[in-house]
């Protein structure tokens, strides 16, 4: 089978759908367009985003094109527990940042990026490590979303892959360029409402088109014992645990999330994150069920490509109206994340690069806005060019994931422990990244003493992840005790076992090594930091803060 097996719209129909979506989104942003934009509003909406917009924006940003295909692939590969592992852990990581987010806001209520806080705490080198990882991650995210648009357009219409990439790039840039983050948040709300409505229609429609619950019940015989097991160890070790570790790093290290943290009104942080947790989990787990349904009906993905599962199911079993709704669903999801990436990169360059390191906290607001918009244009061009090549992005994703994993403990420790130094931060991140690469690409033989040592370091990493979660919700003492106990238990179970699961081993090592180095180097210093300095150094860039609420 090939792409011709998919239902295809005419060129005119697809262009009309895209014009309606991006044209409507652009018209929506005209409601907030100002003749003279405000830099703080452009980056974080003056820290005054309300509960509804904040929760919707957080959910829409977390759901990107890869969520659709990844959740379906997980359901098709691991069976019943697959969608739960993909959606549940991603949802919990939105909730995880909440307790630490409150600390970030308390230390730097006027911050626009997490990098500004780290700059005030440690200086330029630590800040630029965080900023660089965010820019690289956002470029890759843009490329993934534009690639998804190109693939969708080429599959469902006569248009080329490159045409789909360019249309998505121009469309997203058109409505984000002028008002920045404010436009991203407003359109996220509309896009999420559309995504929820379409998902609620499409998922049951596919199920009943397949023959209803009875057909799925009969399809249970096609599942292997592991796929039929809700507590499948295969799914936990190959999908659940690595994803759990990865999204934790994403929650702390990514500017698209921290930008919303700094934008939401401080008294609305808790309900915003709880609502986004529930919304993300419900939508993504539901989409993963389409992959499970494909498995239970014995469907084979076209050309062996798992990314074809959802388009294939929708194309084969639903009417053209539903296929059109699915088209809008995917375009909405990738656009909501792409505009967040553009807003994140513009804020990083405006605040971290220009505001702190070039203008030394005395920037020209007009020049700052120009730099932010120029960043968006350049980032879009890079994303479109890279997406047009249909590149294999796995290697870059591996490095970004490792960098964010190595950053998690140093960032959190820097905001709670006054002994952490700039040297401790940078050396911890570098050591964590290096050891991750050694383990992930098996640069040394994974046998004997070496494998045992790596497994013990990974056990430390697992204890750090669980300890940080306990610390966030239950306090420092509980977190330290729980993390230490988990490390001991994991060391017992991981030894001689984890070496066979390279991805999980390497990811946990990034946490473990960076934590040990950060603590060790910090203890060598006797200096103590005054956290009150952070609020003095992190400022709003416009002289007058508007009273108008976002």
UniProtKB/TrEMBL annotation:
Catalytic activity: L-proline(in) + Na(+)(in) = L-proline(out) + Na(+)(out)
Species per Swiss-Prot/TrEMBL record: Halomonas casei
PROSITE patterns per UniProt: NA_SOLUT_SYMP_3
Subcellular location: Cell membrane
CDD domains: SLC5sbd_DUR3
Record's keyword terms, sorted: Cell membrane, Ion transport, Membrane, Sodium, Sodium transport, Symport, Transmembrane, Transmembrane helix, Transport
Coiled coil: none
Main location: membrane
Protein name stated in the entry: Sodium:solute symporter family protein
Membrane topology (UniProt): Multi-pass membrane protein
Entries under InterPro entries matching the protein: Na/Glc_symporter_sf, Na/solute_symporter, Sodium:Solute_Symporter
Keyword Membrane on entry: yes
